[in-house]
């Protein structure tokens, strides 16, 4: 039992204590995104943490859209967030909510605070409110409207609701303490006027609650027990507690903060991603160079690999950055035993076996995964003319180059030994065709032991291969310069973040494959079928990750 306690993270320990002391008799968590953009890898940590806690304690998990700011919110983002969360495997069952579901109740709670003398209508402009707020070293000043009567405040707040004031003309503020050392407690704004249609309530409201007022109310109304959020909300916790206390909830929720997930050299800021999309630098919010969940899914990452990555990152109170290479490690680990290893040539030159019969085609047995026999095998046609990788032949090789060069012998994977006898160049002086002879006695699986070769290369048959487009992705950010330009705050973009190869050839065994299906291309890396641009008669593959990396697991 003692070991079990030690192995739990600090949030689990706090929940255990709350349950043992009778603070709560159940656990209810939530994920509350604002629908103003696509979710990214950092949100995946929050989703899986909140959902995992609900599962662990046999509790409930709520999916709630914090849609209190109609200026930035879209139905497109609502739909994408739902899809992302389902894909990650978090099931909210019948617990799907919107902050806008509670607008009537929030208004009534604001009225309650006014009646208690805990809120007032303020006429100061946004600039004046900032000026009156003070600084980290100096206390704020009371608003000249702070001591309005309850009756006047109720009338003014009702007039705000009825649309009698323009945007920014009046706000409702909490009456707490303008000298508080915590800036969030210096009479924060609870409601503002905004004559903007809402994607769910239309023109019904022209006042909207601020996040710091709405969020604790949403949690409390839904019966959330533990409001798990990131560390930037730690200074907001006193206000969270003030709201649920003054609104007199019998069993208020408890806020607990954890450290955000920071990945090295990636762009996660919605403002920056939005600009990349609008400037057509990336192909939408799901461009595979981004780390939005939609982008990772399109790139070929799996829910299992994301969960493995989040588990390896752990849950703590201290901020730290994680190397992107660890995410690559997780997808390799997830795919290596699951997916077939297919033949694909990305930079082809033709190889002709001069002594192989011209009209002969053999169908070779090729294992789908050498490390997982349960995936079975398939037939791949072999003939006189093949495509091989351009870098598998050199006219004048360096030392320790064991692939094809004049006079050298290699094994064609799953097939025969071939020996290079000549080559042909095109008008530009590039090698266009390599000629070999083969030894029929050396067929793979035939028991041949007469001699050995040091090199094995892969191939696809010219007559039965499929032409495809392959996209090779690198980091969107120039890793040497870092994410942001220190002079103007712009992004340091990597000009080589996308390489498109149009004339690739893959074996003819992709008939039943669908969008997002992934494979290992032998010797080239892990790839998946692109969900946006690939078609049955024009396949497009995204490289998920190369085969190898210098990354080593932290001890």
TrEMBL record:
Binding site for L-glutamine: 66, 211
All copies of domain tRNA synthetases class I (E and Q) anti-codon binding, residue ranges: 456-530
Annotated localization: Cytoplasm
Positions occupied by motif 'HIGH' region: 33-43
Glutamyl/glutaminyl-tRNA synthetase class Ib anti-codon binding domain ranges (all copies): 340-439
Domain Glutamyl/glutaminyl-tRNA synthetase class Ib catalytic positions: 27-336
InterPro entries tied to this protein: aa-tRNA-synth_I_CS, Gln-tRNA-synth, Gln/Glu-tRNA_Ligase, Gln_tRNA_ligase_bac, Glu/Gln-tRNA-synth, Glu/Gln-tRNA-synth_Ib_cat-dom, Glu/Gln-tRNA-synth_Ib_codon-bd, Glu_tRNA_lig_a-bdl
One of the record's GO molecular function terms: ATP binding
Keyword Aminoacyl-tRNA synthetase: yes
Catalytic reaction equation(s): tRNA(Gln) + L-glutamine + ATP = L-glutaminyl-tRNA(Gln) + AMP + diphosphate
Chief location category: cytoplasm
PROSITE patterns: AA_TRNA_LIGASE_I
GO biological process, one term: glutamyl-tRNA aminoacylation
Keyword Nucleotide-binding annotated: yes
Keywords (A to Z) from UniProt: Aminoacyl-tRNA synthetase, ATP-binding, Cytoplasm, Ligase, Nucleotide-binding, Protein biosynthesis
One Pfam family named in its UniProt record: tRNA-synt_1c_C2
Binding site for ATP: 34-36, 40-46, 230
One of the record's GO cellular component terms: cytosol
Enzyme Commission numbers on file: 6.1.1.18
Quaternary structure and interacting proteins, as annotated: Monomer.
UniProt record similarity statement: Belongs to the class-I aminoacyl-tRNA synthetase family.
Entry protein name: Glutamine--tRNA ligase
Gene: glnS
